[in-house]
Description:
Blueprint: H1 4-15, H2 25-29, E1 33-36, H3 52-57, H4 59-65, E2 69-72, E3 76-78, E4 86-92, H5 99-111, E5 115-120, E6 124-126, H6 130-135, E7 166-168, E8 174-179, H7 185-199, E9 213-219, H8 232-247, E10 252-257, H9 264-270, E11 274-276, H10 278-286, H11 289-301, E12 308-311, H12 321-324, H13 329-341, E13 345-349, H14 399-402, H15 414-417, H16 424-437, H17 439-443, E14 445-448, E15 456-463, E16 466-473, E17 479-483, E18 509-510, E19 516-520, E20 525-527
Parallel strand pairs: 1-2, 1-13, 2-5, 5-9, 9-10, 10-11, 11-12, 12-13
Antiparallel strand pairs: 3-4, 6-8, 7-8, 14-15, 15-16, 16-20, 17-19, 18-19
Helix pairs in contact: 1-7, 1-8, 7-8, 8-9, 10-11, 13-16
Amino acid sequence: MASSFFVLATAAMVFFCNLHAQLKPEAQQAEVIYHLFLRSFYDSNGDGHGDLTGLREKLDYLQELGVTSVLLTPLYASDFYHNYFPIDFEKIDPEFGTKEDYFALLNEMHRRGMKLYMDMEIHYVTADHLWYKDSFQNPSSPYSEYIVYNGPNNTDPESIIHNLTDMLSYDGKIIKFCTINLYHQKVKDYFYHLFAYWVDPNSDGEFDDGIDGFRIDHMLDDLDWKGKITGLLANFWKPLIHQLQLINPNVVFFAEQGDWGYGADYFLQGDVSSVFAFPLSQAIRQLNKKGIQNKADTTQLATPQNKCQLIFIENHDMPRIATVFQGSLAKLKIGAALTILLKGVPTIYYGQELGMTGANGFGKFGVSDGNDIPVREAFEWYKTVAGKGMALWYKNSGPWWDQTQLRDNDGISLEEQKSDSSSLWNFYKTLLAFRQDNPIIQTGSMKFVENDNKNVISFLRWEKEEAILVIINLSDCNETANLEMANFSLKTDKPKFSNLLHQAKEKPIIKAGQNISVILSPFEIQVW
């Protein structure tokens, strides 16, 4: 970016210094977020890499599915294919496109009423970053204090998480990286101006060209649990967030909790807008009734009234849920229902709606970033692997390609599923349309309904005088469950059970004491 970007961002802060407020939680709760690994989504220019223009060309697809917002993995230039660990925070990876491509995408999304969120990882840089290059073995460098060095003469840069100092890239390069000194005042100033630029690039107070928010990768209070850079939530992130909300009160911050916990401290100390519901995600992946209820209740208790939890079942760091569920369509539909109908903001990882498969190598291919390629493969647009826009940037690059999960005519593609009314894709589309049509699912309260069956999970979503009852059989057997409704002030003398998803085979029966009896087929999902 030109140096004027710092001046413009500072002017914006001064001009809007009296506008601090936060986005109303109802607005965020109404969203459906699509978590997208851009390099693997859609290639617009035939170079094999998914790009910004490719995403813009596929906005119709996302809106047809029911998506309102897109969360991108990092855009900035990096030595790594995943773009974490930058060589330049201010430049967009040229394989993704140009600044003009970025603003064209953002403007088109805003024209459609969609939101765009940018992933930022600011704790580390690679050896090709100016701060590292200029300061390594050069204590007189103006960037000497930007990097955490151990010992004299800047010869021993601090490692990153897991004490890594370098990593083998999937393309055979060994890439060094190090930790940034987030408490150096010039570093803090730099990151304020960096974020402020993306929030309001022209410093004109108009946000059509401004990002709607940020995901902060690997957010921790004590960076990497080393006791060296501590108190970050209250002393680094909270002031930064508040400064940026002086520019645009509606800008939001998603914390990826470094500990994958409930995130209560991130809300209280860091004042972030949302966290990811990691414990609930793990419980859903196990399809365990007690675990889901316990984690969901604890998640709600950890979440302040004006904040949100992002509900998800897979992301770019986890084995795909279709691999966990061994391709079971019935289980994948349950995963979709819990993601979309539980309280929180649904977050769908690209290809999840198709049942794309893949598992991390976790060292299978050595200490290489290629281990994660299996969960970041090309989105499957067509029934064959080849086709216009297929983002096969990793083709013939190593064992991850030799063992690719992409197969011709395997039923896991948009082309194959779109015309199949019983497909996973159509089920996601149906659920998301149902959520859009029923604000209760977006903003309503939630409470689990006790029942006498260990395999049946049941919960109510309600607002004012309307309620939606969700009942799910987690087992592969026919099940009967008696729901204890006495604690709910529901008018059941003349019940009006509407089969909202039109999938239930039998209507609930009101029993004595306002209890409800239901019969469910294997893995059946009922919504009344």
